[in-house]
Here is the input.
Amino acid sequence: MIFKKKRRWHYIEGQPLTDLDKQVMYWENKGKLVPTRELIKTPEQIEGIRKSGVINTGFLNEVAEKIHIGMSTLEIDEICQDYCKKHGAVPACLGYEGYPKSVCTSINEVVCHGIPKKEDVLQDGDIINVDFTTILNGYYADASRMFIMGKTTPEKEQLVRVAKECLEIGAEAAKPYCFVGDIGHAIQKHADKYHYGVVRDLCGHGVGIAFHEDPEVLHYGHKGTGMLIVPGMVFTIEPMINMGTWKVFLNAEDPYGWEIISGDEKPSAQWEHTFLMTEHGVEILSD
Here is the structure.
């Protein structure tokens, strides 16, 4: 008996093959990992995600206006809660797998998932990542930014700048019918110039209908590997760039089991956008 391999991609019966069908089926026949049709967002879904992205970006803009030396990270969380209430949105992080706050605030060597606290007060020279995911009418958008407090060291300034460049270079590599590995390869190549570590234990991801969807968007790797990315897919690129090693560890003092710290406790920086893949390249839905 001959068993046929189950296909991930199913074209619509009775309908002529579209260019999308042809491209995806071509690569699937080549043995590449392709998306399921469910990962292709409808126009209505894209519009919902776009509106959620407006709220997400708006919150980060508000943080940019209000963040200052002497502010606690708990105050940033309170700004988030107030902003969501005013705009009819829900913070996706709050209560997610036990996460206790509405936003992530990661200072210096904290790579990601830093939990806002009253005792974490921003000091001159700190660098901080503020990461927020919005739910608006059931649609998700996700983005983060770095902020430099006062005057920091040239080394930290460079790290923050290069981390943003890594995001931008990854976005440039994201073309219709590219592969996730193309994005990761471009990011890693740029970070390697500065001998920075690209975190491997965490990654970008599909987003929009749920907090985390396929594909996993690794920020390192090789061209032509990972999932095929096609028009209609929505995903984040969010490279976490460490000044030293790419390795990380879980903060043993965090009772919630969320805070991730760089392996050698050197500073880390991250920028994140939510992107829509179109026929012409990526469109930013939240930054």
Observations:
- The first strand starts at residue 90 and ends at 91.
- The chain is about 30% helix and 25% strand.
- The two ends are 53 Å apart (CA to CA).
